[in-house]
Automatic annotation (TrEMBL):
It comes from the Eukaryota. One of its GO terms (biological process) is nervous system development. This is Protein NDNF. Residues 176-313, 434-542 form the Fibronectin type-III domain. Its main location: secreted.
Length: 556
């Protein structure tokens, strides 16, 4: 309350002094008019709170003013003011108003007028001014009572800033401290990774539980403050929670945001028109490897030290780095009739390339999907001729010119590993795989099931071929794994000898009658069995029918 009265008292004293020094009947000099204008500005200003960060919204070309008063009676009154632009460069200045002496001295009237004019102009002084978009702090010391006016101006566009005034320099800092060397060092660069390190903030050593480092990665430029980064992301059309360190909650995420939690590190990836903007908070670790970057791309890195209790932050000096160029993918040559077995890493999601130069006009590509899901893309002399997801056994018959160059690109479409067998050959070449039936499904007959036997059937072809049947006893909880993880390219050589039931040859020129049945005996009652049928053609390479799970009757 005493302080509030003082704030009202000092401006009133200043105004009274001006009235005494400048009678109304006297003509106004330029110095007098300037001071009266300053006094008018004061009465249209807001009080700046002490010890609290204030957000100030600025309209283009319209100045905004705040004032504060240093407490009377203190011998030395230290204070500091920190201004953080959150977008474009701004202009700001600090003006100090001193209370003038009101005692008149005898003498000539003109001499008194000049003296009054000098006193009026000496009452106001500009003690600091700045123009730019960096975070600036002014630290001052006053030995007498004074009123201070802060003036802010944006000449580019509407914007906002934050202002922090404190007259208490003994109870700690609102903003975390930066080390004497606030640079970020790049200590490693890869095709898709960049490793960064920076010196610890003194605040981390003192307040480890309430301080953490947060990293911002983008493809445009560095940011000099956290609020500047947030403003830039918002201006790109995205809503962003107000503070990086305190916004990492799933319910605050926007549709354009993706949150990743890994090894106690929380990341938010923002999808913006200018690329991804990544935010990662990693606690008090001062070394971090940024993963999953794009090759041959320049990235900008900013580290912020954030106080979780006060919501305030300080920015290290940002840096940038360009990831290495991706090496040319290794291309494997395909030779006529030779089978290539390709295993694809689902996590890397990279293309595997095979190249084939045609020695005939008609070319036959064969793909046997062994495991997983695979996308195939075939080009001829750089132009796409086929592109689709593989399923089971797939043939592509293509017609072109002699010495045409075909490029086959394969990619796994799921995170687990996938594999496929590939063959390229002239159209008249001996086929790699046997003639296939209309369906590779195995059928079981429920009415023919007994406690000790199961009857199954499958389709054949018009070509005499060898069929081998295998069985395997499994548990209920193994069904899904057995069906999903089965290698459809593996032959009977991968099976245990005890699982073999029989092998037989058959065919029928009438496809409607090309079906065979087999009753498997010697089974256990109430037991699950996995049945597989392998078809062998002239080349000896088997084709595996879709596995079938059947359970024998429990009671007969």
């Amino acid at each position: 309350l005493k302080m509030s009265w003082f704030w009202l008292y000092l401006p009133l004293r200043l105004f009274t002094a001006i009235c005494l020094c400048h009678p109304i009947k006297a003509p106004a000099t330029s110095s007098q008019q300037s001071f009266k204008t300053d006094l008018f500005n004061f009465y249209h200003s807001l009080i700046l709170a002490d010890g609290k960060e204030t957000t100030v919204h600025l309209l283009k070309d319209i100045p905004k003013r705040y004032y504060f008063v240093l407490e009377e009676g203190r011998v030395l009154a230290p204070f500091s003011i920190t201004v953080t632009p959150c977008d474009v460069p701004i202009e700001w200045s600090i003006l100090m108003y001193k209370s003038p002496s009101t005692k008149a001295t005898p003498g000539d009237h003109d001499t008194q007028e000049v003296s009054k004019s000098q006193k009026a102009s000496s009452m106001v002084s500009t003690i600091f001014n700045y123009k730019g978009n960096s975070v600036e702090t002014y630290m001052g010391m006053s030995s007498h009572s004074a009123l201070y006016l802060l003036e802010f101006l944006s000449t580019e566009r509407d914007t906002h800033i934050t202002v922090y005034l404190t007259t208490d320099t003994t109870s700690g800092h609102l903003y975390p401290e930066l080390p004497t060397d606030p640079r970020i060092d790049v200590i490693g660069i890869g095709h898709t990774t960049v490793t960064l390190t920076w010196k610890h903030s003194p605040s981390v050593l003192q307040h480890r539980e309430s301080i953490q480092y947060c990293l911002l990665v983008n493809e445009k430029h560095n940011y000099k403050s956290l609020c500047a980064a947030e403003t830039a992301i918002r201006s790109s059309g995205m809503k962003l929670p107000p503070t990086l360190a305190l916004s990492l909650s799933p319910y605050l995420l926007e549709p354009q945001q993706v949150m990743i939690l890994s090894n106690s590190e929380l990341s938010i990836i923002n999808k913006v028109s200018s690329g991804e903007v990544r935010q990662v908070c990693m606690g008090t670790k001062n070394t971090y490897t940024v993963p999953n970057l794009s090759p041959s791309t320049q990235y900008y890195f900013d580290v912020f030290i954030v106080n979780l209790l006060t919501n305030a932050s300080a920015a290290y000096t940002g840096t940038f780095a360009r990831t290495l160029e991706e090496p040319e993918p290794k291309v494997t040559e395909l030779k006529d009739g030779k089978v290539v077995h390709v295993v694809l890493d689902g996590k890397k999601q990279k293309f595997y390339s095979l190249q084939y130069q045609a020695r005939h006009k008609k070319i036959h590509f064969t793909f046997q999907l062994c495991r997983g899901q695979i996308r195939v893309h075939i080009t001829r002399n750089g132009k796409t001729v086929a592109s689709e997801n593989l399923s089971g056994l797939r043939y592509f018959s293509l017609k072109g010119k002699l010495l045409d160059t075909y490029l086959v690109q394969l990619r796994s479409t799921e995170e687990s590993n996938s594999s496929v067998k590939v063959q390229a050959s002239p159209h008249f070449h001996k086929p790699l795989f046997p003639l296939l039936p209309e369906s590779l499904k195995i059928k079981s007959f429920s009415k023919l099931r007994t406690c000790r036997s199961v009857t199954i059937a499958w389709l054949g072809t018009q070509e005499e071929s060898k069929y081998c049947v295998y069985r395997k006893k499994i548990e209920e909880d193994q069904i899904w794994r057995e069906l999903q993880s089965a290698d459809r390219c593996s032959g009977p050589e991968s099976r245990h000898k005890s699982e073999k039931v029989l092998c037989k040859y058959f065919y029928d020129l009438n496809l409607q009658r090309a079906v065979t049945t087999e009753t498997i005996k010697g089974l256990e009652a109430g037991t699950l069995y996995l049945f597989d049928v392998y078809l062998f053609g002239p080349s000896g390479i088997p084709v595996r029918y879709h596995s079938k799970v059947v359970k024998t009757r429990k009671k007969c």
